[in-house]
Amino acid sequence: MSAVTQIDAWTRHEGEARVRQAFAAAFGADGPEPGTWSAPGRVNLIGEHTDYNGGLCLPIALPHRTYVALRPRQDDLIRLASAQEPDGLRELRLADVAPGAVEGWTAYVAGVAWALAAQGLPVRGFDAVVDSCVPYGAGLSSSAALEAAVAVALDDVFDLGLAGADAEPDDAGRTVLAAACVRAENEIAGAPTGGMDQSASLRSREGHALLLDCLDSSVRHVPFDLDAFGLALLVVDTRAEHALVDGQYAARRATCEAAARTLGVQSLREVAPGAGLATALDRLTEASDDPATAVRRVRHVVTEIARVEALVALLDAGRVRECGPLLDASHTSLRDDYEVSCLELDVAVEAAREAGALGARMTGGGFGGSAIALVERDQVGQVEQAVAQAFAVRGLTAPAFLVATAAGPAN
Ligand code: ADP
Ligand code: MG
Question: Which of 36, 56, 87, 391 lies deepest, with the highest CB count within 10 Å?
Fold first, then answer.
């Protein structure tokens, strides 16, 4: 038997107590008490590498959250600490935040304040401490959880009026906050991101998956309660991180953009599956610099968007047990056509299926991170065992697991 590691979610009470305690340790007991806010990581059910193609994706917010304790300042100083970053207190001025000017993790926090201020919103400096149970780099979007927690905190303390009340979240306002988080990540942290993660963290509803249309940022909340069907969504953090990821992401994006230009469309969303796709692939074969690559990438994007629609139709119809083959097809497409899988993801997916999963696929950008499997609730333990065993026999770093339910948004 292989040992099985679980990634536990903190209760809200636990998260808030931890971050308050860390705030007192960083800033002392003097001065006003901070408020606390939190935001979830996410896992994407289907629709991978579709966000930057104007496509559809279907994430859920995780019960795993990033907590922030924060109090506003009268000046423009930003003072920050994170329990995950043991380099002590960091200080910078809001006026000094600019692309290329902020190093490391503080860019994700200061970047949100910068992006909101850049829109003319009345954001000043603040003291803040962060603590989180969202693992880094597991493809579960710890970066967006951090940005979103800071965004709702700043919205509250500076009375921006964008997030809305807990009982009645303001989706239009949250779309503005999500856009600021995307700008923070792209322009200040310098990390490419298509926008799914920030919307998932800010705009999800508990008990629902978020159908996000990346063409116009519109959303629909699709009921998602696997428990009611005797099922569970198992997430496998492969603990794999491969080099060259940034370049690979940029290359995929560039190929898609070039293909869209060749096809004379704004985004690949305009290419219909079926006959439309066949015509598009013929055109790319004739007119692309590297036709074989262009064909594979475009085929993934177009068929993946169709799979999102098919999965949503099954969920809407209560045919949740029939979703497995769509997950499997998504994985095959990401592995063979988009070429963003890796050994660990393939091993996790295959071992989960062999142990009884109804379907499984890599999730997130790829080259490491996490896989998901749709599993009978009473088979979760056996699937975890089988995946852990498959990693052990190949000498891979032991994976970690969590069972995902659709949790609530940043607040
Ligand atoms: P992920 O898939 O987890 O989002 P990223 O590489 O996009 O992976 O983001 C991880 C980075 O986000 C970390 O390296 C760190 O800079 C920042 N980050 C995320 N969570 C925290 C946190 N709790 N404290 C400080 N920085 C964080
Ligand atoms: Mg991220």
Answer: 56
